[in-house]
Structure formats: C-alpha cells, structure tokens
User: Fold this.
Amino acid sequence: MIYFDQAASSFPKPKEVTDAVVQALTKYGANPGRGSHKLANEAGNKIYEARVQLAKFFGLTDPRRVIFTQNATGAINQGIQGLSLQNGDHVITTAYEHNSVRRPLERLKKEIGIKITYIQPDINGEINVGQLESVITAETKLLVVTHGSNLTGAIIPIEELGEICYKHKLLFMVDASQTAGILPIDMEKLNIDLLAFAGHKGLMGPQGTGALLINKNIELKPLLTGGTGHLSERIEQPEELPERLESGTLNTPGIAGLLAGLSFIKKTGLDEIFIHEKMLIDACIKGLNKIEGVTVYGPAENIKRLAVISFNIDGVDSQEVAMILDQHYDIAVRAGLHCSPLAHQTIETIQNGGAVRASFGIYNTLNEVEKFVQAIEEIRAGYLV
Assistant:
C-alpha cells in the first residue's frame, strides 16, 4: 500500500523503533519506578534517558519537566486544564486549531466562564500582529497555537508569537503535533512555556506516546492522581515533577520506541527530512494543479509549508474519493474534517463535508506521488463520463 496519512500517524516506523519496543517487552519489561530490582531500574533508566534526550532536543533545561502522556491530546489537556484558569480569564487561540485545543477551551468556557478569542491566520499561516495585540486585555492569560496546520500544511510563525507573549507577559503554549521531528523547536529561544506533541507522528515513535514539556517555574494542577511509585506515604499527590503529573505505570515500551525514533530523527537530520518532504509536496501540488476540476487548498507555492495537502474534486464527496483510492488504488489518505472544523470553515470546505488530505513522510517516494496524481486524474476523468 502507498501510505499517505503521515499527518495522522507515521508509518512505517524505523527498524530501530520496532527493535527498541521488542527489547523493552522481552528484556526489561518491568515497572519503572516500582521496585529496586535490576529490571525495574533498567526500565526506569530508559525512561529517564528519554526525558533527557527530549529536553535537549527541544531546548528545555530541566528533564524532570518532560511529562509523558498517552498522546498529544493528553498533553494539551494537562497543559490547558492544569493552569487553573478562572472565571473571566481570557485565552487567545487560532482558527487552525485541532479539537484537542478547541474542545478543552470550550469546556472551560462553559464550566467556569473563561473567554476565548479565535484569531484568523491567512492561508499562508501568517497572523496579523496588530490584530493579535489589539485583542490582548488585562485578563488575557494564555496564547495557545498549533505550530503547523494538519489541514493545509501552513506553518504558524511561533517565533514572532513568542516575542509578543514575552512582551505582554502571557503564557505561550504550542501544539507541535505536526512539526516535532520536522522543524527545529527551541523552547528557550522561542519563549515557549508549554510544548505539547505526539510521539507517533514526525518523531517516528509508537502510538500511545506523547509529552508535555513545561518551561520555567510553571505549576500545573494534575488531571489524574494516584500511584507514583514513591512518596507513597503522602495522602495528596506529590509536588515534585515529573511524579506530580504522571500517575500510574508509564508506557515503557512506547517511550523506549520514542527514544529510538528521536535518535533516528537526529541521525537523519531535520534539514534532510524537510528537504525530502518538500520535494514530495512540491511535486504533488504541481501535479494536482494541472488537473481540471481539482481545487487545492493551502499556502501559495512559494511559501514554506509542511508536507500536508488538502484538496477536493469538484462534485465528488471527499469520503468517496478516499474510498476509491483505498479500494482501487491501494493508496491510504484521510478525508473529512480532520478534527479541525474551524480550519475547514476558513478554507470554506466544511459545508461540503471537508476535503481529501494526503500527507507525506521520510519513507515516501516521488514515484508514489506520481502514482497518486495519476489516480486522482483517473478518478476525475471517471466522473466526467
């Protein structure tokens, strides 16, 4: 199968990743932090090594502030809901956000009365700084943005936004689910307070992994309380990190795989990965733009973007296109709203049920892209008959 759903989950995984998962399951599959025997210690050491390497990779000074979660959704929820926002507090976000950002915010709006402003990036991902600053008030506490759109591939200028947050003393949270392992991110240099990402996308790790990185001295209320492996004599959740925000047994095989995925990314190089994916997306856009009746959404051709492209064939339901690609061409894509309804409103596709999305990764090839474009051309021609 030609797999063009990398924005949802990277596949296939590097051999190093699968080997690391198997090794964790077969060589030291004990409970990290729950015991002092050799296997528990080995599992715990692997978890700690992953914290250290992730902290270094993302410019975080204290590895204890790397909090492992099941996915980016868990990380985002812990960040947003853990801030203990109060009635009347104001949060700014964008219309490009995934529901993992929008729904926790809207929940807090309904339950405790926070205020939310959704700013509108342009099709290239640019944000009007004047407009952003005009909606900042004395009650504004947080700016939370995606680094890259999972719908259009637009890259949001987080460096500029970080400077604005620093200027106005706002907390800055970034959802790097689409960019971790693809674009360089340094939390210290970019003034990022909270960084959330999935381990199973650009970082090439297994599903069931993610992390929230917490900069500076930000304190978060834990969403879960329970066993932490030590400090068990305390009635309340420990104050120390990472235990305060990590109740229950961690996914040691998954985190071992994530560590191996990170090592693969560093060995391959972010620049090489981006250049390869740029070649694929450029070829795909060029090919699709030549097909009459196909509408391509997203940044202009000369704008830096992620290897994500959404499009529609005039008069054909996006789900039907995806089904035909799967069943007749053995090509995997994703159709629909991609958990980003506001983004679909922005590109005016929500009324049509969304769009077809193709997304590429390091293991995809130019030949696969050419087959994909040919398939779309044939599907379009078939509906003209």
Notes: DSSP finds eleven helices and 13 strands in the chain. The first helix runs from residue 15 to 27.
